Amino acid sequence: MLLVSAPAGFGKTTLLADWIASSTAPHTVVWVSLDSHDSDPGTFWAYAIAALQTALPDVGTRALALLQASPPASVTTILTTLINDLAAIAEDVVLVLDDYHVIDAPEVHDGMAFLLDHKPRRLHLVLAGRADPALPLAGLRARGELVEIRAADLRFTPEEALDYLHGVMGLQLTAEDVAALEARTEGWITALQLAALSMRGRTDLAGFVAGFAGDDRYVVDYLVEQVLGRQTFDVQSFLLQTSILGRLSGPLCDAVTGQRGGKAMLERLDRGNLFVVPLDDRRHWYRYHHLFADVLRARLLDGHADQVPDLHRRASDWYDQHDERHLAIDHALAGGDFDRAADLVELASPALRRLRQEATLRRWLDVLPDAQIRARPVLSNDAAGVLLTRGHTEGVESRLRDAERWLDALPGDGQTTVTRPPGMVVADEEAFRILPVAVAVHRAGQALVRGDLASTRAHARRAQALSYADNHLGRAAAAALIGLASWGSGDLEVARAAYVDSMLSMERAGHVADVLGLAIALSDIQAVQGRLRDARHTLERALRLAETQDGPVLRGTADMLVGLAALHVESDDLQSAKELLARSHQLGEHLGLPQNPYRWRVVMARVRAVEGDLDAAVGLLDDAERVYVGDFSPDVRAMPARRARMWIAQGRLPDAFGWVAAQGLTAADELTYLREFEHVTLARALLARCRIDGSTDAGQQAWALLQRLLAAADEGGRTGTSIEILLLQALTGQALARQSRGNLVSSLEPLERALVLAEPQGYVRIFIDEGEQMLALLNAAGQRGITSGYVHRLLATTGAEPMQPKGESGLVEPLSDRELDVLRLLASDLAGPDIARELVLSLNTVRTHTKNIYTKLGVSSRRAAVSRAMELDLLRTRR
């Protein structure tokens, strides 16, 4: 990166322009001149991308669409798309950002830092400004990636000053006069230029130079006054009146000055080098040199302060008529016309909130007097919403009360303008009509930020009750908040129904992008409920809806593909899952919601784990954690717990139990839905310790914890979680039985229930991923007739030969020698007492052996036991 940093007037722009003009290297140059209005991230990147497209039409099309999307994508996502486009170009491109010092938004600086960290090889950045930018310059210097040009490099030497004053400005000065002038200006080019302009037409140049003294501020004031004093009255008036504008065009200047001929005047000033900088090749838009504009505005305030409000009003009117409401508001604020500014802000607010440009809205609200906001119920509510979008609760309550006090003062239905109380101001009538709903929604959001889920639901239900039938957005927002609160408390059925309602309302409102965002949350809820088929239907329907929309691909489409990929992994269709993930990747992260980069990596990690590459899976989970973006949705499957599960699968128990200790987890904890995934992970760790270390205590802790977790999951209707817990119960029972030489048959009871729950939804990997111990249990279950067709399909996915036992190989627990003796006699015609006499046993002992035989064979009668024994070839006489 090239940084040109020096005070105003040191010729930064001229230097860069000359360098570019004289360069013989093949490259494309894109120049962006910035002003204070460009600090809004959306505006800044829109100008930068638009400038790039003037030279590279194929670059930034998707990025620009993202800025205009509703809601817009994150800056990181937008820049990633832009970087990918730039990486594909075959020529060098130089992007010059002039006057970068006017940018004061941290979000813009963060975006520039991201661009610098991921800059394509053929992109060369040049930043020019009066101060060092808030960028990681030290790191760039350390890596040798920064070239700096500063004031000491830009100061004119005596030789350069002589060339400039003689050759460019046409003055005949002695070498001594030039040296003195250069010394007194310290090589400051603007001062030299102003001095030269003042000396035009003078005869006593030496006397002027001798009397030229003072610090920069007074020198500039003096010289500019001399320059202005030599202009005609109409030029002086034009310069002063239009100095309030950041950008100048003929029609705009005509509107502000109340005169005609603005375009011709700008061309005249340009030709006369009176500090006018063209902003385009057609000479349609200009700006004044910043230093010159500062001095002009200072003189306007000193001599004509009474004109300033009216000049800003005219500018505001012009911008409003030309659909540039942002600049109309800025001029209304600058002119102190707060009534007009507040009206315009209120009218602009819905579009800003839809496009997620709350930073601009917040900037305007910060300038408006508090009395203006408090007098406007709609604006008071908007101010509360801006605070909530930043995750703040301080100040929200007072703003909502300001809105409500006007609603409380209204008679009747409150919607007529005739009976409104004095002092209340409304500019957006539609927003006022639905204001009670909006206030209730914000109260629900406030409660959600505080973690008060009960109040969230209460306020959201009030919003539903207040909503008109045509207020689809209000109804959608209220339903979504109910869904979020219910989801966070583990009441998934209420959450599911609320999300369904919200999606329908969003679809009626035509906000399809929001439908996609709701669909990914709804499918997550349905999956936890064990409703995999419903989850797949939700995502497929949303994807079809998105694909039927005209225009560019909707943001959120990539999320639908990732969600479907996760479901295909569970059904063991890895090929389809990988194809869906590839399609999502090809669309780009800019077409995903903020959590899409995280979700993509989580699903791909599971694919890698199924393929046996656990190291790659852990790496993907680490990457996922780095790109995680939180939102209002509950984080019920936190990344550290996911990683701990992968460690358990790798046999890294010390790492897994390090995580357990760091989280402060114990088997005796009080259970909550928000930590359910963590506690199930703890049970997995205890089970692994029981298997590997032979710790009966760990196994018993796991069993007791799983019992409590199962009861909670069953009560909450979280069938997907219940299936996992039941499988872990079966494995834990198996591990404990093997250590104590106990009865393994009891492991089949939870497995049978899991199979019955899972079969209708097509679960596969949840069983197979548990390894060889689970395969043995599945084989035994199938041989006992427990969902044998489903078990056969599950085992077939592993390539095993299911349900073809030889001898006792199919038994979970083998029969003892004495039980085999009893079994063979059960196949005869002997009655119980006869069998007892034959084996020299008591009748009670024979009955006990018979009961054990029935249990191990999974039968309930003598005939069934004999039949089963024949199938298993257990009736041969022992040698």
What does this structure look like?
The protein is mainly alpha-helical and 879 residues long. Helices cover 65% and strands 4% of the residues. The chain contains 47 helices and seven strands. Strands 2-3-4-1-5 form a five-stranded parallel beta sheet, with helices on both faces. Strand 3, helix 5 and strand 4 (123-129) form a beta-alpha-beta unit. The longest helix has 22 residues, at 719-740. The chain starts with a strand and ends in an 8-residue tail after the last helix. Mean pLDDT is 86; it is low at 804-809.
Describe the structure using short key phrases.
single chain, 879 residues, mainly alpha, two-stranded antiparallel sheet
Task: Record the SSE blueprint.
Elements: E1 2-5, H1 12-22, E2 28-33, H2 41-55, H3 61-67, H4 75-87, E3 93-98, H5 106-117, E4 123-129, H6 137-142, E5 147-150, H7 151-154, H8 158-168, H9 175-185, H10 189-199, H11 205-211, H12 216-229, H13 233-242, H14 250-257, H15 262-271, E6 276-278, E7 286-288, H16 290-304, H17 308-321, H18 325-334, H19 338-354, H20 358-367, H21 370-374, H22 377-389, H23 396-408, H24 429-433, H25 435-450, H26 453-466, H27 472-489, H28 492-509, H29 512-528, H30 532-547, H31 557-570, H32 574-587, H33 596-610, H34 614-626, H35 639-650, H36 653-663, H37 676-693, H38 696-715, H39 719-740, H40 748-758, H41 765-768, H42 772-783, H43 788-796, H44 817-826, H45 832-839, H46 843-857, H47 862-871
Parallel strand pairs: 1-4, 1-5, 2-3, 3-4
Antiparallel strand pairs: 6-7
Helix pairs in contact: 2-3, 3-4, 4-5, 8-9, 9-11, 10-12, 14-15, 14-17, 17-18, 18-19, 19-20, 20-22, 22-23, 22-25, 23-25, 25-26, 25-27, 26-27, 27-28, 28-29, 29-30, 29-31, 30-31, 31-32, 31-33, 32-33, 33-34, 34-35, 35-36, 35-37, 36-37, 37-38, 37-39, 38-39, 39-40, 42-43, 44-46, 45-46
